Hints:
Number of helices: 11
Largest sheet: 9 strands, mixed
Number of strands: 12
Number of domains: 2
CATH topology of the largest domain: Rossmann fold
InterPro entries: AAA+_ATPase (IPR003593), SRP54_GTPase_dom (IPR000897)
Subcellular location: Cell inner membrane
Shape: globular
Organism: Elioraea tepida
GO cellular component, one term: plasma membrane
Distance between the termini: 40 Å
Order of helices and strands: EHEEHHHEEHEHEHEHEHEHEEH
Protein name: GTP-binding protein
Strand content: 15-25%
Radius of gyration: 20 Å
Helix content: 25-40%
Amino acid sequence: MRIRVFRARTAAAAMAAARAELGAEALILGTRRVAEGIELTAAAEPEVEPAPVAPLQPVRPAGDPAVAAALAAHGVPERLRAALASGPDLAAALSTHLRFEKLPLGRGSTLLVVGPPGSGKTLTVAKLATRLRLAGRTPRVIAADGRRTGAVEQLAAFTRLLGLDLIAAPHPATVLRALAVRTDEPTLIDTAGIDPFDPAEREEIAALAAASGAAVAVVLAAGMDAAEAAEAAEALAETGARHVVATRFDIARRVGALPAAAHAGGLAVAEAGTGPGAADGLGAMTAEALAARLMAAPASRQTRAAA
């Protein structure tokens, strides 16, 4: 991997210089302010497509009694656990009972990112915007969170580094006005955290999705209680949601929330958080990777006590 450092007055100019030398798929490793303006570090071999989450270990057959025990340890609900343990192997069973799909981020697409407060929606939008920017796209990013103090500023910090404009639209009407300006680029909408069990809040999201024609992706923390995740996903499916993204998947000790939510809500498993970095902290989730992660017993992820 070739690594180069570029300096320019603005982030957009530095990024343009990086793409000119390293190609349209240059991977941005980091940026910082310097006397000349912005210093940007880039590499020549990026991951433009979401990199699949790597399996942690070989996937064991589901006929193995250890599979049911591992699923139980991760909190996978009993009915789903029984179904997954009955197939020829766990990855195949996951593919049978769940859907695995990429997020719809093609030309002219609109993605509405929703979820409970603190689930990681804003960082997910930032990571998706970074991925698209590194692929040579100029996504339109809309901050529709008019409730949380500092929400717009948090997302603006990312869009400034990416050389993107951020549209602040705290009300559904202003979101629709922004979307009335047509673009061939993908549009990402960061929404305010909602209570999945509040019918009025769900209806607001559903109405916005219907009026805008946006696809809806649910963001949930991978380590949350699996039963609660299932109930939240089932409720949020009423907004028209079709995909689920599991944040903090890399640090959660138990990840039964992801299959539980996908199954209960009829949502396609799309991506999982693999780290804090905006450029590489989100990966496409596959049945094989999820199976391997579920077979990694929570106890094996404990931090060793100091001697």
